[in-house]
Specification:
With 388 residues, the chain is α/β, with parallel strands linked by helices. The chain has one domain (74-385): 3-Layer(aba) Sandwich (Aminopeptidase), CATH 3.40.630. The chain has seven helices and 14 strands. An eight-stranded mixed sheet has the order 4-5-13-12-14-8-6-7, sandwiched between helices. Strands 1, 2, 3, 9, 10 and 11 form a six-stranded mixed sheet that branches. Helix 6 links the parallel strand 12 and strand 13. Helix 4 (215-228) runs parallel beside helix 7 (366-385) and helix 6 packs across helix 7 (366-385). The chain starts with a helix and ends with a helix.
Length: 388
């Protein structure tokens, strides 16, 4: 009797396996490309907690390894740009380091905070993770000759890009009193954390019309440093993303065209933004310690034409991106994340010296990004002075 039951059970198992095999094979066949693609696009980066001064010093205290898709930099489709999850929706008018805790940027008072003032009270939301992006590895990344890296997200061979990165921009900087650089902001209201803390405010979309608390403040610091090198700058502070976020790039394009028509001497056009690195209730604060003080890490975005963007001279923009990246990373090791070279426009078809620069993320502090603006401006001033 027992043998009969065993044979019966064995037969049922074999029948079940036989029936499920075709479905298992079919499912695996469909799943394999997805899994393979995911693994192929996944790179490992090293994150650090409380890194040592990056000026020539090694980072010895690893925080954790985070394996993630290289699209993690929160650069998605252009309609949502660089801030998904934090202030990307359209709005209406109704709507622990001592050197970084002086709060000078936070305590600055605006004479005109505008229609959307910076908060004065804060609530506790998700966790802020303070991290430093080290050197990236993976097939898409390559090192520039002097310093810094490039994240090549296109079909163009990295060897081709490397050769281009060693070429200087074709324009020259004039010894004149005419403006040579334009700084503007497509997403003018992008804002930041008030100070270093362990959590972000889930009720604040990190956007404000207060120029002392948004990316305009960064542009002002960049302008000061470039002009200190003897190069005149126009800093346009027009708000392009409030009260309506949609259409920001169309509006900023009109601003650029108008200024360039008035000042044809302009060679370099810089759109200053901030990133929004977050997910699953965690916001990231990418920083580096430069000369004993915390600075928000910086990422340049250089667009590539896929044949539909009317941007045939995109490589000339990339040459400028490479020049600035190498200058910043040489001057201030650890300040930069890799250049993102991708199929994006961001109004870079309007000039052969147009770039987008991400200064930190929404979880970086006001003082961190202000300091980064000073460092960025000093490096750009040095780089452009070499083109005279």
């Amino acid at each position: 009797m027992r043998n009969h039951r065993r044979r019966r059970t064995s037969a049922l198992i074999k029948l079940t396996v036989l029936l499920l095999t075709p479905f298992t094979v079919a499912f695996s066949t469909k799943l394999f490309p997805f899994v393979y693609g995911f693994l192929k696009k996944t790179d490992e980066i090293q994150l650090y907690k409380n890194p040592a001064d990056l000026n020539g010093k090694a980072i010895n205290e690893p925080f954790y390894n985070l394996s993630l898709n290289e699209d993690y930099e929160d650069t998605i489709n252009e309609n949502f740009d660089l801030s998904v999850g934090y202030g990307v929706s359209e709005e209406s008018g109704d709507s622990s380091v001592a050197s970084n805790n002086d709060l000078s940027a936070y305590n600055s008072v605006s004479e005109n905070p505008g229609a959307k003032p910076y908060p004065t009270k804060w609530t506790q939301g998700g966790t802020i993770v303070r991290n430093t992006y080290g050197k990236f590895t993976g097939n898409n990344y390559f090192n520039l000759e002097k310093a810094g890296q490039v994240n090549n997200k296109t079909d163009i061979q990295s060897a081709t890009l490397y050769n281009e990165s060693n070429l200087l921009p074709e324009f020259k900087i004039d010894n004149s009193d005419q403006p040579q650089v334009l700084i503007y902001h497509t997403h003018t209201t992008e804002s930041f954390e008030p100070f270093v803390r362990d959590y972000y405010d889930a009720t604040f979309n990190y956007r404000t019309t207060d120029e002392t608390k948004n990316v305009v403040m960064i542009g002002t610091e960049i302008q000061k440093q470039i002009e200190a090198s003897g190069i005149k700058v126009i800093h346009n502070t027009t708000i392009h993303d409030y009260p309506s976020y949609n259409g920001s790039y169309d509006r900023s394009a009109e601003t650029i065209k108008s200024i360039m028509q008035q000042y044809p001497s302009i060679k370099v056009i810089l759109d200053i933004h901030r990133d929004a690195i977050a997910g699953d209730g965690v916001g990231y604060q990418p920083f580096a310690v430069i000369n004993g003080k915390e600075a928000a890490q910086v990422m340049i975005i250089s667009g590539c034409d896929d044949g539909t963007m009317n941007m045939p001279d995109f490589m000339k923009n990339f040459r400028l991106a490479s020049l600035l990246q190498q200058q910043m990373e040489t001057d201030y090791p650890g300040l930069t994340r890799p250049i993102m070279f991708d199929y994006r426009n961001y109004n870079q078809n309007l000039s052969t010296g147009a770039l987008l620069i991400e200064v930190g993320s929404h979880c970086n502090t006001l003082d961190q990004v202000k300091y980064s603006g000073q460092l960025i401006g000093a490096s750009i001033g040095r780089a452009l002075s070499g083109l005279k």
